[in-house]
Design goal:
Layout (H helix, E strand, L loop, with lengths): L2 H7 L11 E5 L3 E7 L7 E9 L2 E2 L7 H14 L1 H17 L6 H7 L2 H5 L3 H6 L11 H18 L5 H10 L4 H8 L5
Antiparallel strand pairs: 1-2, 2-3, 3-4
Length: 184
């Protein structure tokens, strides 16, 4: 699809809300990034997934979806998935929040989002055969969720807590609780 067709395809609310950027990943996912409303530079992330030749409706990814996919990968390739989680923790430590309009333009280019992780993505590619999401999609989505979280609250730690719970083999209740923002 051309960039303009992707932008149109990912528009919602009777086509009045258009993405500021779109990415087509592996021919099976399209990610859209929109201006959010929680803070001055907030971003909103949405995606469509191709399933049996048809595209899904526009969805908002939740941490729980991401965590379930990691758990499936972990069930099939525990050691490799834990290495992947450690890799994501390193990414978390280096992700910076969006602080101005220039950051928003620079951070949200796919080349910038994936450039420094290309070799690592290749190293974990085989995990893509387990679960719903490819490694490319997971890394891109994780980085965007990290940027979103840190942009809205620079001291945020929820995504990091989720990664730590997954890395440490936290019980399913702790992982689900963390992924769904339930702090009981």
């Amino acid at each position: 699809m051309t960039r303009e067709k992707l932008m149109e395809f990912m528009s919602f609310n009777q086509k009045t809300i258009r993405p500021i950027e779109t990415f087509q990943i592996n021919g099976n996912f399209i990610l859209g990034i929109y201006n959010g409303s929680l803070s001055k530079h907030d971003i909103l992330i949405k995606y469509r997934q191709r399933n049996r030749g048809n595209w899904s409706r526009i969805r908002t990814p939740k941490h729980i979806h991401w965590a379930v996919d990691i758990l499936i990968k972990m069930n099939n390739e525990n050691i490799e998935t834990k290495k992947f989680i450690k890799f994501l923790i390193k990414i978390w430590e280096n992700v910076k929040p969006i602080k101005n309009a220039r950051d928003k333009i620079d951070y949200l280019k796919i080349e910038n989002l994936l450039e420094e992780t290309k070799n690592n993505i290749r190293a974990y590619k085989r995990l893509s055969k387990h679960g719903e999401y490819s490694i490319n999609f997971l890394v891109l989505l994780a980085k965007l969720l990290m940027i979103q979280e840190k942009t809205n609250l620079e001291t945020a730690y929820m995504f990091r807590s989720l990664l730590e719970a997954l890395k440490n083999g936290g019980d399913i209740f702790k992982i689900v609780s963390t992924a769904t923002h339930n702090r009981r």
